[in-house]
């Protein structure tokens, strides 16, 4: 008589328990990961729910190996999808009314959320996003605040003025200094990645 190896298939209760443990274990870390990449808590929560919904559905039909890595990969894809649904946003070469714009990088060439989904574009976008996050930390707080609110959170200067108490002219000046700094800071990345 030939013995066959038996493969234990987890029961539905065991599957639910394992899914629940994974969700509880990874929820805070995954939320922080998402929130660092989208401007609002509500957006991050929506993406998190989508990721866990997909995780539950997938886990019930087939085992998910390396659940944490799977969750972060799906979260990255969901974040990319979320930005694709938004209009393309650019770091504006912002100048005050009487100043000329110069043609240094950090203009349309640094489009962050272009709907083009090619792997090369996604890779470049991730490099630019990482470099931008590092560069933003180097800005003075007031310049970083106005840049993030205006460019990434899409707030008007009037709204930012109401929130911060600073005048619109002051905010325009801070934004201009931030853009000039970021252009210079990201110039090498621009030269390495975007010039053939």
Description:
66% of the residues lie in helices and 0% in strands. The protein is mainly alpha-helical and 196 residues long. It folds into 2 domains: 12-85, Rna Polymerase Sigma Factor, Chain: A, CATH 1.10.1740; 108-194, Arc Repressor Mutant, subunit A (Orthogonal Bundle), CATH 1.10.10.
**Which spans of ≥5 residues are poorly predicted at pLDDT below 50?**
87-105
Number of strands: 0
Indicate the mean pLDDT: 75
Write the CATH homologous superfamily of the largest domain. Winged helix-like DNA-binding domain superfamily/Winged helix DNA-binding domain
Distance between the termini: 68 Å
Shape: elongated
| Main sheet attributes: strand count, strand direction, barrel closure | none
Which structural class is indicated by helix and strand composition?
Answer: mainly alpha
Strand content: under 5%
Number of helices: 8
């Amino acid at each position: 008589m030939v013995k066959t190896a038996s493969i234990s298939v987890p029961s539905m209760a065991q599957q639910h328990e394992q899914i629940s443990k994974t969700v509880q274990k990874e929820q805070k870390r995954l939320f922080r990961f998402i929130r660092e990449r989208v401007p609002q808590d509500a957006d991050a929560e929506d993406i998190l729910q989508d990721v866990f919904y997909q995780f539950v559905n997938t886990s019930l039909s087939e085992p998910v190996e390396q659940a944490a890595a799977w969750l972060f990969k799906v979260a990255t894809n969901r974040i990319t999808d979320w930005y694709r649904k938004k209009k393309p946003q650019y770091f504006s070469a912002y100048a005050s009314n009487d100043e000329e714009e110069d043609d240094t990088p950090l203009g349309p060439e640094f489009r962050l959320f272009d709907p083009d989904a090619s792997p090369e574009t996604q890779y470049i976008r991730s490099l630019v996003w990482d470099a931008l996050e590092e560069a933003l930390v180097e800005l003075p707080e007031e310049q970083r605040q106005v840049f993030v609110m205006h460019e990434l959170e899409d707030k008007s200067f009037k709204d930012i003025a109401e929130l911060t108490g600073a005048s619109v002219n002051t905010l325009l000046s801070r934004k201009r200094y931030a853009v000039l700094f970021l252009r210079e800071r990201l110039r090498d990345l621009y030269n390495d990645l975007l010039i053939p």
